[in-house]
């Protein structure tokens, strides 16, 4: 096409579109050797790092542990008959359903709630920071967090603190009477005197079994004296002197008092009076207690609440999933926040003008518009959790590792653990590949549909 100019020949115009039925020449057709030179390094790496391991794993899964005996599909049959592998498949199913869903939901909530606050960027930074920590380091951190001892494990320290706020701890957990003494064990863990008490004779209630470190701040026990008004007096103490010596059932110098012990006077199965020992271990009951039996309730001796066994068989998988969510919720939040930034504000304002409240705007406008981003996050995390290994291997103690088992961990144990069988390990690797492929195919098809829009 040309354009006429004054006093001169027509000037050439811009090139038009190619004629129908013709194709643009490409470098692949004109210089295929050049295209091959550029693709060859990538193809070599792809073949060496991806294709060859897959092909060899499939081949190796058809042989026995030595690699010389052909067993066909025997290794795959063993996968679905072995209890450890079945547990791993069950746990992987829980992981795939729970972990990506919780991470995506939290990421969506964080992204939406921080959009309007002034310090939203700082909050996002804090939530995203765990992504900078390796799985190994995160596993070590949460192994300490979930320690059973409240003095070491943060989770149980918080849990025990909350529990003890609403439930008073026992005075002297683990204390017990001296063998062959007057105190006898009765129902519910309480201890009751075998003989009735007399106002003229102070009641001595010796106990043992208290660790020395718990008595470091205890005062020295004092012998009780008759009250003089018909009341009952007595002493509750640790009948054991440091270094030995002393007379049993007698308050010897240097023996420690047990303060805060509740003493009940019981007559005919009914509590007629109650007292609590002072700092010197002495207690005083009113005259109504004369002739009754003395009882030390079980609440004085119950073991201190030690928190939740986070790493026990019933909670080990949820505990590890929680550590994964701590790491990856920030990843989901950042991607969803980026998608939220591209949502047209006109849509949101139009919905509000039409009378929709914030929940309706979120449910009927924000979430549908963010659906492609949510799908990307969900699928990415599903692929990621199918390969989870580090957290389970590090956090789960040996006693409950089988309860927290996942396919990647079972692959490692089968291939390199006790009684290693790389044929079974290769079969697990092929099974993992087969589980990941449908998710990847779904993701690729979704991306292609997005690209055609």
Automatic annotation (TrEMBL):
User: Which family is annotated?
Assistant: Belongs to the binding-protein-dependent transport system permease family.
Q: Which InterPro entries match?
A: Ig-like_fold, MetI-like, MetI-like_sf, UgpAE/MalFG_permease
Organism of origin: Streptomyces radiopugnans
Cellular component terms, GO, for this chain's entry?
plasma membrane
Q: Which residues form a coiled coil?
A: none
ABC transmembrane type-1 domain location is: 89-443
Q: Does the keyword Transmembrane apply?
A: yes
Q: Does the keyword Ribosomal protein apply?
A: no
Membrane topology per record: Multi-pass membrane protein
Which GO annotations describe the biological process of this protein?
A: carbohydrate metabolic process; transmembrane transport
Q: Where are the transmembrane segments?
A: 33-55, 94-113, 125-146, 324-344, 365-386, 423-444
* Composition-biased stretches (Pro residues): 11-20
Pfam families (UniProt xref): BPD_transp_1
Cite the residue spans of the region called Disordered: 1-24, 171-190
This protein is called what?
Answer: Alpha-glucoside transport system permease protein
Q: Which PANTHER family match?
A: BLL4140 PROTEIN (PTHR43227), DIACETYLCHITOBIOSE UPTAKE SYSTEM PERMEASE PROTEIN DASB (PTHR43227:SF8)
């Amino acid at each position: 096409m040309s354009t006429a100019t004054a006093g001169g020949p027509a000037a050439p115009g811009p090139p038009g579109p190619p004629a129908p039925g013709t194709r643009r020449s490409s470098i692949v057709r004109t210089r295929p050797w050049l295209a091959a030179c550029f693709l060859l390094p990538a193809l070599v790496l792809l073949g060496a790092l991806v294709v060859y391991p897959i092909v060899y794993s499939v081949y190796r899964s058809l042989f026995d542990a030595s690699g010389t005996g052909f067993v066909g599909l025997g290794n795959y049959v063993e996968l679905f008959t072995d209890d450890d592998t079945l547990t791993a498949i069950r746990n992987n199913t829980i992981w795939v359903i729970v972990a990506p869903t919780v991470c995506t939901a939290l990421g969506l909530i964080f992204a939406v709630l921080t959009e309007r606050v002034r310090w939203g960027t700082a909050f996002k930074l804090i939530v995203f920071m765990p992504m900078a920590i390796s799985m190994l380091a995160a596993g070590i951190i949460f192994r300490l967090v979930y320690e059973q001892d409240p003095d070491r494990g943060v989770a149980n320290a918080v849990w025990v603190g909350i529990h003890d706020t609403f439930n008073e701890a026992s005075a002297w957990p683990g204390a017990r009477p001296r063998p062959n003494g007057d105190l006898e064990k009765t129902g519910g863990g309480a201890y009751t005197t075998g003989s009735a008490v007399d106002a003229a004779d102070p009641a001595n209630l010796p106990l043992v079994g208290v660790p020395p470190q718990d008595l470091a701040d205890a005062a020295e026990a004092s012998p009780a004296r008759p009250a003089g008004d018909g009341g009952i007096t007595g002493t509750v103490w640790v009948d054991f002197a440091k270094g030995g010596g002393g007379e049993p059932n007698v308050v010897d110098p240097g023996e420690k008092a047990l303060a805060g012990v509740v003493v009940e006077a019981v007559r005919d199965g009914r509590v007629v009076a109650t007292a609590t020992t002072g700092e010197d271990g002495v207690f005083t009951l009113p005259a109504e207690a004369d002739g009754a039996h003395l009882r030390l309730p079980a609440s004085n001796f119950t073991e201190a609440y030690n928190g939740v066994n986070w790493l026990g068989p019933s909670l080990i998988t949820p505990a590890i999933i929680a550590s994964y969510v701590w790491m990856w919720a920030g990843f989901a939040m950042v991607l969803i926040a980026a998608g939220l930034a591209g949502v047209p504000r006109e849509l949101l304002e139009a919905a509000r003008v039409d009378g929709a409240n914030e929940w309706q705007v979120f449910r009927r406008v924000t979430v549908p518009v963010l659906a492609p981003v949510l799908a990307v996050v969900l699928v990415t995390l599903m692929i990621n959790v199918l390969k989870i290994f580090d957290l389970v291997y590090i956090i789960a103690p040996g006693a409950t590792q089988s309860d927290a088992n996942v396919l990647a961990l079972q692959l490692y144990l089968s291939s390199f653990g006790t009684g290693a069988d790389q044929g079974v390990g290769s079969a697990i690797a092929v099974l993992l590949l087969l589980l990941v492929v449908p998710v990847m195919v779904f993701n690729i098809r979704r991306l292609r549909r997005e690209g055609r829009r």
